[in-house]
Design goal:
Layout (H helix, E strand, L loop, with lengths): L19 H19 L11 E6 L5 H12 L3 E6 L11 H11 L3 E6 L4 H6 L5 E7 L5 H15 L6 E5 L6 H12 L3 E5 L15 E2 L3 H7 L2 E4 L15 H8 L3 H4 L7 E3 L12 H4 L6 H19 L2
Parallel strand pairs: 1-2, 1-3, 3-4, 5-6, 5-8, 6-7, 8-9
Helix pairs in contact: 1-11, 2-11, 5-6, 5-11
The chain binds phosphoric acid mono(formamide)ester.
């Protein structure tokens, strides 16, 4: 299978604006990479190329899985982080990106605390830009790996009910997932403290669930999100303990879920707050499948965009 060429835009800035056939072709490519890696014969379409990880915010999963994905396909990887860079001497985002671009990578993979940072950089560099999370805007590779994991589990997302619960207001994962899951035919519900639900969220195509508990009981998949403390100047909830009591997915509540229903979390998990340890490590949890699938999805993304 050949990569689904990004004909309209050589960048992956968000799920908004993508179409279903593009995502399905990307999933097919990810499946092909997964099979090839499992059989010990990975394809190396990026041999002789380089990609640059440009992370202005911390990351465990996204940065390392893009790195493994790129290296498995034969690319060199430039790992740039704020610590140790010339940002400490006052170099701007754009100057940093333009200088990294001048080194000649096929793609810059960028994470930044500002919504729109990836779009801004894409206007000033020659290579492709892949958004690895920009503020509370989008995290497209996360949504793609989440939807891919659900499709693997259920066969199709058509008609499945997915609940996204927690800090929706500050979550780029929630926004990207709402777009992606809706495109693939799922019904999407959101739930969380009223202070953490954007007023216009239903305009994205989801519904606000009237009750967290009943939404958990009706869902085929429950995606729990952590409180994004780094994006909350004023704490929107009195304490982690109260949050856990009202909005946490406990073992007792998880027992009320439908047969075969699954629990997702993009990580990092705050155990005992949004998710109890027994659920995070339990039979419904797809957390480590999500991480593993992240490599295959990012291989497909890089093959498609890093050219
Ligand atoms: N899900 C996610 O983006 O994790 P990291 O912050 O570890 O990359």
């Amino acid at each position: 299978m050949s990569a689904p060429r990004a004909t309209r835009n050589p960048h992956l800035l968000g799920i908004e604006g993508l179409d279903r056939s593009f995502i399905e072709a990307l999933f097919e490519l990810a499946r092909e990479h997964k099979r090839a890696v499992a059989s010990g014969t990975p394809r190396t379409p990026l041999a002789g190329r380089a990609v640059a990880n440009l992370f202005f915010e911390d990351s465990t999963r996204t940065r390392t899985s893009f790195e493994i994905a790129a290296k498995t396909m034969g690319a060199e990887v430039l790992n740039w982080t704020v610590a140790g860079s010339s940002v400490s001497k006052g170099e701007s985002l754009l100057d940093t990106a333009k200088n990294v671009d001048a080194i000649g990578p096929g793609a810059i993979i960028i994470r930044h605390s500002s919504s729109g940072a990836a779009l801004l950089v894409s206007r000033y560099v020659r290579c492709s830009v892949i958004n690895a999370g920009d503020g509370a805007h989008e995290h497209p590779s996360q949504a793609l790996l989440d939807a891919f994991t659900l499709q693997d589990r259920f066969g199709t997302l058509e008609g499945k009910r997915v609940l996204i619960a927690g800090d929706i207001l500050h979550s780029r994962v929630a926004r990207s997932n709402i777009y992606c899951l809706r495109l693939l035919g799922a019904e999407v519900l959101v739930s969380g403290p009223p202070t953490l639900i954007p007023r216009d969220i239903e305009m994205l195509g989801c519904k606000v669930a009237p009750s967290f508990r009943s939404a958990v009981e009706m869902a085929d998949a429950v995606m729990m999100l952590r409180l994004q403390a780094e994006r909350q100047p004023d704490q929107a909830f009195p304490s982690a303990r109260e949050y856990a009591a009202h909005w946490g997915l406990t073992g007792a509540l998880a027992q009320q879920m439908k047969d075969g229903a699954v629990v997702l979390h993009p990580g990092p998990v705050n155990r005992g707050v949004e998710l109890s340890p027994e659920v995070a490590d339990g039979v419904r949890s797809t957390i480590l499948d999500q991480v593993a699938n992240g490599v295959a999805i990012r291989m497909a993304i890089l093959e498609t965009f890093a050219w």
